[in-house]
């Protein structure tokens, strides 16, 4: 890729308070830079273009005759994995951090865009360009809040970096792919994580205070495959809360409007995706989308324990029942929630079928949100694959 000239015209369009997507802005950081010049094309909430960008990034877009393409996107392979020697303090076993460190140590990249936290707040995201393994390790553990990862784009262009790894979520990566050719890079690698239901920092606080026994000591949390939210506390203890016991009536409006309007749960445009939802409990789900992603995974293959992906159960009834329950803000008594969780864990969807359950649940919810709050955007904003997924279910009016 050839270098480009700095964006002189765009520099004049930089007002950082400007948010063309308005209430749907995911605060990806693009509009905090002079790349705001490209926002009407680049923003996932102004211009849905997953299919075109899949072709650009992977050499093909999804085959809409193939249901697994609807769910998991373009891919070469999928596998379940975990590190043989986990990184202390990592949210899971540290696969993302390990890949980033190996790419830096082996000279494949000169910097890694990742997200540390501020000194004042462990959950407040602080995007950085990491240039040492220590700086990468300082970014371990998810920050479950809206994060302006792309706010460092100007720094990238001015730094002289030519080989870069970017770690991010779907809305950030769509914007990044849209301006990729403007960055003047020789090589760009993208390591993605699945993403759903982010919140503002205030929304996160409400979720913690509503859900955890000790919100002030939570280090990280995740909605896991056993249908429980797992909270890790400062003393090393783990707290679990059944999905069905969440105070949905109080939390229904806590998620960001951008997340309620998102249809890229699986990070379709990353080279390599590392998450959890398509793997058995305790393992990570890895999706290799193209040759760059395969090369990234190969770097750490000797450090991983792997097993084939599996799929078990049937999600459809559980998804259909969850649609009106969420829509009406139903909250079960904790005893009933725990009992339901035990039953569903034993007989419910697992592996890839759990991933489909999660995607179906969120896509039906998000479709209803867009239909009700932004009906004029519905046809253009919901990708074809998402329409096919939602079309499997009966939705309330």
Automatic annotation (TrEMBL):
Which residue ranges does the record assign to the Coenzyme F420 hydrogenase/dehydrogenase beta subunit N-terminal domain?
78-154
What species is given as this protein's source? Petrachloros mirabilis ULC683
Q: Where is the Coenzyme F420 hydrogenase/dehydrogenase beta subunit C-terminal domain?
A: 162-309
Per its record, what are the GO molecular function terms? Answer: oxidoreductase activity, acting on CH or CH2 groups, with an iron-sulfur protein as acceptor
**Xref: InterPro entries:** Co_F420_Hydgase/DH_bsu_N (IPR007516), FRHB/FDHB/HCAR-like (IPR045220), FrhB_FdhB_C (IPR007525)
Q: What is this protein called?
A: Coenzyme F420 hydrogenase
């Amino acid at each position: 890729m050839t270098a480009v000239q700095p964006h002189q015209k765009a520099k004049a369009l930089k007002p950082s308070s400007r948010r063309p997507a308005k209430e749907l802005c995911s605060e990806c950081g693009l509009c905090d830079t002079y790349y705001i010049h490209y926002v009407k094309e680049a923003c996932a909430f102004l211009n849905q273009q997953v299919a075109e960008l899949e072709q650009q990034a992977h050499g093909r877009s999804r085959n809409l005759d193939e249901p697994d393409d609807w769910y998991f996107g373009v891919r070469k392979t999928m596998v379940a994995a975990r590190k043989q020697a986990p990184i202390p303090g990592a949210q899971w076993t540290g696969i993302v951090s390990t890949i980033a460190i190996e790419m830096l140590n082996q000279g494949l990249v000169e910097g890694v865009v990742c997200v540390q936290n501020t000194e004042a707040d462990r959950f407040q995201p602080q995007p950085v360009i990491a240039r040492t393994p220590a700086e990468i390790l300082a970014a371990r553990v998810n920050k479950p809040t809206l994060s302006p990862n792309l706010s460092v784009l100007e720094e990238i262009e001015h730094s002289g970096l030519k080989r870069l790894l970017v770690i991010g979520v779907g809305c950030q990566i769509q914007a990044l792919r849209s301006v990729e050719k403007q960055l003047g890079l020789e090589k760009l690698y993208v390591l993605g994580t699945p993403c759903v239901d982010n919140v503002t920092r205030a929304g996160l606080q409400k979720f913690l205070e509503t859900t955890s026994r000790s919100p002030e000591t939570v280090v990280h949390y995740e909605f896991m495959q056993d249908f429980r939210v797992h909270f890790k506390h400062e003393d090393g203890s783990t707290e679990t809360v059944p999905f069905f016991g969440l105070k949905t009536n109080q939390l229904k409006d806590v998620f960001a409007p951008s997340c309620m309007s998102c249809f890229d749960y699986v990070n379709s445009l990353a080279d390599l995706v590392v998450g959890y939802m398509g793997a058995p409990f305790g393992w990570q789900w890895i999706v290799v989308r193209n040759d760059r992603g395969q090369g990234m995974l190969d770097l750490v293959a000797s450090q991983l324990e792997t097993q084939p992906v599996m799929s078990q159960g049937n999600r459809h009834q559980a998804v259909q029942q969850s649609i009106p329950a969420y829509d009406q803000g139903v909250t079960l008594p904790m005893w009933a929630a725990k009992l339901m969780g035990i039953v569903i864990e034993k007989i419910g969807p697992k592996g890839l079928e759990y991933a489909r359950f999660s995607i179906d649940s969120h896509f039906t919810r998000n479709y209803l949100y867009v239909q009700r709050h932004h009906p004029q955007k519905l046809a253009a904003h919901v990708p074809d694959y998402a329409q096919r997924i939602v079309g499997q279910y009966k939705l309330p009016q």
